[in-house]
Each structure stands twice: as C-alpha cells, then as structure tokens.
Amino acid sequence: MTATESTAMGSHSVDPEEVQRERRALVTRIAKWTLPSLVLVLSILSWHLYVTIGEVPHYILPGPFHVAKSTFEDWAVLWPALLVTGRLTLLALAMAIIGGGLLAVAFTQSKWAEMSFFPYAVILQVTPVIAIAPLLQIYVDSAFIAALLCAWIVAFFPILSNTTIGLKSADHNLRDLFTIYGATRGQRLIHLDMPSALPFFLGGLKIAGGLALIGAVVAEFVIGRSGAGLGLAATLLEASYRFNFGRLYAALILISLMGVVIFAITSVISHLILRSWHESAVRRDH
Fold first, then answer.
1. How much is the mean pLDDT over the chain?
2. How many CA atoms lie within 13 A of 17 on its CB side?
3. What are the tens digits of pLDDT across the range 222-263?
4. What is the pLDDT of residues 146-173, one digit of tens each?
5. Is the pLDDT of residue 90 over 70?
6. Long-range contacts of 131-135 (CB under 8 A, 24+ apart)
7. For residues 90 and 95, what is the distance between their CA atoms, to the nearest angstrom?
8. Degrees to nearest 5, angle at CA 22 with 19 and 24
9. What is the residue extent of each domain of the chain?
10. Can you tell me the distance from the alpha carbon of 258 to that of 265, in angstroms, rounded to the nearest whole number?
11. Which among 163, 277, 115, 148 has a CA at the least distance from the CA of 216?
C-alpha cells in the first residue's frame, strides 16, 4: 500500500463515537414510536382476553371489537357530535388566546389594570365550571353559547397567567438598553417583551388546549342532562341512560383521541416556532 492510499484511507476513517451516537439516535427514534404502539397493542389484547376468558357481559364491559363495531354502526350519530365538541373546543381556545393574551398585555402595561382585574381572573379559575354551567344555561338562551362560555372560562387562565409571567420575564439588562436608546413602550413590548413571552405563551397554549376540551365536555354533561343534546359528552350521557355501552365507550375514545390530537398540534406548533432559537427546542447532538 502506497503512502497516498494510506493517507486517503485515513481521511475517510469513521469515528467510532460518531457511529455510536448515530446508532443511539436511531434506536431512540424507533423506540419513540414502537414502545407506545406496543403498549397500546398489549393493552387492547389484555382487554380482549379479559372480557373473552372472563365471559364479561358487554353491558358491563364491552370488548374492543364490540366497541369498534359500535363506532362503525353509530358513526352517523358520533360524527355530528364530534363536530360539535370540536367546534366548542376550538372556539373556546381561540377566545382564550385572544382574551388572555390581550389582558396579559394590559396587565404588564398597567399595574392599575392588573390590581383591578387579576383577582377576578383567579376567581373564574378556581370556581368549578360544573357550578357555573347551570347558571349560564338559565341566563343564556343558546345551549351552545352557554357551553362555549364554560369551556372558555376553563381555558382562559393558563393563557393569561403564562403570558403575563412571560411578558415580565424579559432580561432587565436588555430593558435598560432599550431605555438608553430611547425606545418607546410599544417598541419594547413588540421587540423585547413579546419574544421573551413566546415560550411561556406556547406552554400555556398546550395546557389550555386540553382544558378547553375538558370544559366543553363538562359543560355538555351538565347541559345535556336537561335534554339539550350537544356533542360527544351528551351522546355519552345518553348512551349510559340507554345502557348502550358500546356507543358510550366509542364516544369516550373519540374524546380522548381529540385531546391527543389537540396536544399534538399545539406541541408541533410550539416546536416549529421555537426550534431555531429557544433552548427548550434546540436540537442537541448529545
């Protein structure tokens, strides 16, 4: 072997640590999807074996195949209910984002506004929505609007609280620098406070998404008892009255899947916005 060939081979040598690092990363990526899938398959299999071997009646615990069959057969009922619950959740979340974000800006721009209104925001948060829903049903003609307000109340506070903390978390040295250069309050808000608050707002968004769904479901339960059927929760309640446990479990699974989808979407949005600059989302090689 000539010296030139030896040098060429040396230049293309593979770093063992780099290979091991890539192998670990590959294993992690595969395990991230396969392990939850395996747990899901084993859970469904255990469920099926339990109801089959134990001969459990379907009106006590329906098996997974019975639930799948009910989902298919009752899709004409479940799909409109799913749309109603989804619309309630998304509208409540949008209202929480707008209202909570604007009020958080007002709180950080005016101490008087924060001292005046923050205690009432806390009262709304700590008051059980199940106690508010019947009152709203009395004073609001539309059952949908009443449920929407309940879901908004639940989702509102995480946006408000997290965004307020984020707007107050800007680096004080940078604040002093903005003051030295004569920046206006609006310029400091847009170019310093809002970028600093963005990770906090996105964290609150992930929490508020799930809470909006919970608020919508609780409101549907309460309002659905009066006969004003709304979405999946009202369908679930009606199915329990009729001892239709296949439809009940189908509605419950759809509610859970909706929550997973909302969390996944908000997580992806957060990652896409923060991945290029924030420490919580920047990808590390080790």
1. 85
2. 2
3. 876 655 567 888 888 888 888 888 899 999 999 999 999 999
4. 888 989 999 999 999 999 999 988 888 8
5. yes
6. 133/218, 133/219, 133/222, 133/223, 134/222
7. 9
8. 110
9. 15-52, 64-274
10. 11
11. 148
Query: Which tokens go with 277?
Result: 């600059």
- 8 A C-beta contact, residue 258 and residue 213: yes
Residue that the structure tokens 């309630």 belong to: 88
- Inter-helix orientation angle 245-274/232-241, to 10°: 160
Superfamily of domain 64-274: MetI-like (1.10.3720.10)
For residue 243, the model assigns a pLDDT of 86
**Residue partners of 47: CB distance under 8 A and separation at least 6:** 63, 64
pLDDT tens-digit map of 104-140: 999 998 889 989 988 888 888 888 888 888 888 788 8
